[in-house]
Amino acid sequence: MQAQNVCDVRRITIRRDGQVLNTKHLILTFNTPDLPQTVKMAYIRCPVRPYIPNPLRCFQCQRFGHSKTVCRGQPTCSRCAEVGHDSADCKAKERCVNCKGDHSSFSRSCPTWLLEKEITALKIKNKISYPRLGVLYRHARQKAMRRRPANPTYPQPFK
User: Could you tell me whether strands 44-47 and 6-16 are parallel, antiparallel, or unpaired per DSSP bridges?
Assistant: First the structure.
């Protein structure tokens, strides 16, 4: 694999019923920023595509973009978004810390999670750092907001 600029190989695993299971998918790390179309493994040509990880969520404050080891926030329940207790014992109604929606903070249907996933994909596909991408995203959003009328008017229905 070294001849194909592969410097590391890691298998993707999943957890089912408390057991860690291997999948058929591998994460290859290359010595070069440009990915090849395919790699040859045991005489088989395998297609290569960029690996887009899930957004990084802190297991202490439940927010995105950092981990528990560097968190300065307070311990927050991932189920109800209340500060001061663990989600394992929580029976309260679900509420998201990030978007205030009626789902847990780890829900993959959360608009904030979906946005973070999209930003991560853009970062990897365009080879841009996360801070630079954040600046570009905010700039594009501000530009779009300036184009929108401040007080939109809507036609009144006929009487």
Answer: unpaired
Q: CB–CB of 57/63 below 8 Å?
A: yes
Write the CB contacts of 155 (distance below 8 Å, at least 6 apart in sequence): none
Question: Is residue 122 classed as helix, strand or coil in its secondary structure?
Answer: helix
Using one digit for the tens of pLDDT, what is the confidence trace for 65-87?
899 999 999 999 999 999 988 88
Q: Which of 101, 100, 94, 55 is nearest to 78 (CA)?
A: 94
| Gap between the Cα atoms of 13 and 21, Å rounded | 5
Identify the band that residue 145 occupies on the pLDDT scale cut at 50, 70 and 90: low
Report how far residue 59's alpha carbon sits from residue 16's, in angstroms, rounded to the nearest whole number. Answer: 20
SS3 content of the chain, % helix, strand, coil (to 5): 25, 20, 50
Q: What integer is the mean pLDDT of 22-37?
A: 91
Q: Which of 117, 146, 122 is nearest to 136 (CA)?
A: 122
CA distance 58 to 70: 9
Is there a contact between 141 and 135 (Cβ–Cβ < 8 Å)?
no
> Are the CB atoms for 23 and 13 separated by under 8 Å?
yes
Q: Which one-letter DSSP state was computed for residue 155?
A: P
Q: How many CB atoms lie within 10 A of CB 43?
A: 5
